[in-house]
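User: I've been trying to design a sequence by hand for this structure and keep getting stuck. Would you show me what you'd pick, starting by listing the structure so we're on the same page?

Assistant: Good idea, let's start from the same input. This is the structure you sent:
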């Protein structure tokens, strides 16, 4: 019985090792560039200006190919969101409650002027129709469905970005590294015009080696060093100056855009992070006070007991 159990355990361990070794061999990308993110850590908060700029980068550049399906326009104006207004700016009529995301004038304007319309319907004649988005709508993406998205991107699917930071290990550093990490194709490989080399993307560059670096069976020559990373169907999306920031002091560089869009996407993947941290802090403070009170009452109760 015990021997059988041991054997099973050993088999499981061996399979696990083999699987993880396999995964490692495939994922030979460069280690991600470690960045300092203000929103990480126990007391971390999002930087509101960075969130606003990040949304601008998403809207101007990324939304041409990627959706953020899980976000509603009104999320942008909720507490902790990029355009939250605790009180109304001057000139807004008194009847408007700006802290309510559905009435927030910035959110309303963003929805109204958004580059994509919302598909609604069916109307009285049974047809679907396009209309201007409202704060209560999902932020519409560029494609009607997955097939259309693939057709427009050489067969590759641009994933939804609303949860990408949570869906990938080391999400913020990974996306930052990917966006800033595109490189010209290594000399020893052959890529097509729609394959873009990035040493931070998971992949296996040995399959793209030029013939002269391969054996007759198609294996890499022993002397050849396989470049790290892989290829994506996404061309480098950011270039210096591609997004115009309102604040003239913020650099308009690939590095800054990547930081800002990662901040925005991190917020998108967990819009309630600040509340969660606050609640965690309050809970711990409460437990500490409770523990102190219990200890004190224990001392008081037992202080008069004769030994
Ligand atoms: C021209 C279209 C296009 C634009 C613009 C674009 N992407 Fe992409 N993106 C793609 C495609 C297509 C893929 C899938 C690549 C693949 O799997 O080969 C992709 C993949 C990605 C991935 C990798 C996801 C993974 O599986 O790990 C991330 C992250 C990403 N894009 C973020 C962005 C961000 C952020 C922006 C804006 C700064 C952006 N993209 C702009 C087309 C685009």
């Amino acid at each position: 019985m015990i021997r059988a159990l041991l054997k099973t355990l050993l088999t499981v361990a061996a399979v696990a090792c083999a699987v993880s070794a396999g995964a490692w061999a495939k994922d030979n990308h460069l280690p991600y560039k470690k960045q300092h993110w203000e929103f990480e850590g126990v007391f971390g908060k999002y930087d509101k200006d960075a969130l606003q700029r990040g949304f601008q980068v998403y809207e101007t550049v990324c939304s041409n190919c990627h959706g953020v399906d899980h976000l509603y326009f009104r999320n942008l104006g909720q507490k902790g969101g990029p355009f939250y207004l605790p009180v109304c700016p001057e000139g807004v009529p008194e009847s408007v409650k700006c802290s309510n995301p559905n009435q927030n004038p910035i959110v309303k304007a963003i929805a109204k002027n958004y580059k994509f319309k919302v598909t609604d319907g069916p109307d009285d004649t049974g047809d679907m129709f396009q209309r201007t988005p409202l704060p209560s709508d999902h932020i519409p993406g560029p494609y009607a469905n997955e097939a259309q998205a693939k057709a427009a991107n050489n067969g590759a699917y641009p994933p939804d970005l609303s949860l990408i930071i949570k869906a990938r290990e080391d999400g913020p550093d990974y996306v930052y590294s990917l966006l800033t990490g595109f490189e010209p194709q290594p000399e020893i490989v052959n890529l097509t015009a729609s394959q873009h080399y990035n040493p931070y993307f998971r992949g296996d560059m040995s399959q793209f080696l030029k013939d002269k670096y391969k054996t007759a069976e198609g294996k890499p020559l022993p002397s050849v060093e396989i470049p790290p990373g892989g290829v994506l169907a996404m061309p480098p999306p950011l270039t210096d100056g591609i997004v115009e920031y309102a604040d003239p002091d913020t650099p308009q560089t690939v590095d800054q855009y990547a930081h800002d869009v990662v901040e925005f996407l991190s917020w998108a993947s967990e819009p309630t992070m600040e509340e969660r941290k606050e609640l965690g802090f309050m809970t711990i403070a409460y437990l500490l006070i409770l523990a102190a009170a219990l200890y004190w009452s224990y001392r008081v109760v037992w202080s008069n007991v004769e030994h």
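That's my pick for every position. To get oriented when you compare it with your attempt: Residues 20-25 have pLDDT under 50 and may be disordered. Residues 57, 61-62, 64-66, 153, 156, 158-159, 161, 164, 168, 175, 178-179, 232-235, 237-238, 261 surround heme C (CB under 6 Å).
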